[in-house]
Specification:
Elements lengths: L11 E6 L6 E6 L2 E5 L8 H14 L6 E5 L5 E6 L4 H9 L6 H4 L16
């Protein structure tokens, strides 16, 4: 896991497969979260698609998703303002953990993560 970046951002490693049939998290690859994106790796299209995909998945504004390193690589580090790395990783790997009603809150931090097995 990477150290905290300036501004308090805690990045997580992701591995991107561009030009896929759909946008989806497919698990882990060598310790990084593996994400498939429909966008091609041309002129930053895949990077923008990654930011939008993560924002939708976490129910946050796309402006809160930061690409910290790896702009021209499949191996990237991204962070989301207000999200600790461990919570970000868990939420990306299991979208059922993000409670939608908490996502619509004032934006003072990440949505609460539901306990596994809770209704």
């Amino acid at each position: 896991m990477a150290a905290t970046e300036p501004g308090g951002l805690e990045p997580v490693a992701v591995w991107i497969q561009p030009r896929s049939s759909r946008d989806q998290v497919v698990g882990e690859r060598e310790g990084a979260i593996a994400i498939r994106l429909q966008a091609p790796p041309v002129n930053g299209a895949a990077n923008r698609a990654l930011q939008r995909f993560v924002a939708r998945r976490l129910a946050v504004a796309p402006s809160r998703v930061r690409l910290v390193r790896g702009q021209a690589s499949r191996h990237k580090w991204l962070a989301v303002e207000g999200w600790p790395a461990a919570d970000l990783r868990r939420a990306l790997l299991d979208p059922g953990l993000v409670e939608p009603e908490a996502s619509a809150s004032s934006g003072d931090g990440p949505p609460k993560l539901a306990a596994i097995g809770q209704p």
